[in-house]
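Thread: quick sanity check before group meeting

JM: Hey all, I'm pulling together slides for Thursday and realized we never actually wrote out the predicted structure for the chain we discussed last week. Dropping the sequence here so it's in one place. If anyone has concerns about the input, flag it before I start.
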Amino acid sequence: MKVSKNENISVIEISGLDRLEFLNNIFTNDVSKVSNKNSIYTCLLNPQGKLIADLILSDYKNNFYILCYSEFTEDLIRILKIYKLRSKIEIKDVSSSFQYYFVDFENLKTTLNKSEIFAGNSFVSNNSLLVIDPRLVELGAHIITEDNLIDGQEYEINNEDINLNYFKNGVIPSSILSKLKKVYPLEANIHLLNGIDFKKGCYIGQENTARIKLKNKLSKR
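JM (edit): ok, ran it. Output follows.
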C-alpha cells in the first residue's frame, strides 16, 4: 500500500465505562454510531456554538480514538477534562505511540474492493486502524499504526500533500479551520460533510447550531 506520512495529526484515547455517554453529550455527531467497523466525523463547539475542533472519532481495541489536527490537541484535551467532572473516563494523548498516514482515493481503489469503499468504513488489523474518511470517500483514508503494517504488508511512502487533496475536493482542511476564529460549523459546511446530527440529543453549542439552521441565519459561508 502506498501512503503519505503526516506529522501534524494527533491521536487521543478516550477510555472508561462512561466514554460513549460522555462524548455523546459533547460532540455534534451521534457517537453511538461508532463501532470497530464505522467511524464518524464530528466537532467540539463552545457554548456559543463556535468551532473549537473538528475530528474523526473511531473505535480501536474497545476504546474511542480521536484523530485531530495537532493545533487542536491542547484545547481539545483541556476542554474535555473540564467537562469530565465525575464521569468514569480517561483522556490520554497517545500520539507518541502511533504514526499517522494518509491514503489518497486513487490508491485506495487499488487496495480495497469497491464494495468496501464507503464513508466511515473502518478496518482494524493487528496494531493498525484504517478509516475511510467519513466526510467524502474521495478524501481517501486515514491510518494510525503502531507497527507500520496492515495484513503483514509494510507501507510504501509517497509524498502526497493531504491539504491539496482536501482543496481539490472542496473541503476546508483542519489546518485552515484552526486559524479561523469564531467560526460556526455551518459556515464551514461541516453539516454538509456528515459532521452534525440534527436528530440526536443535546450537545455543547447545540442551541445556536439548531437556530442557525432552522432560521437560515448564515451570514457567510
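AS: nice. The first strand starts at residue 2 and ends at 5. Residues 120 and 129 are 12 Å apart (CA to CA).
JM: adding both to the slides.
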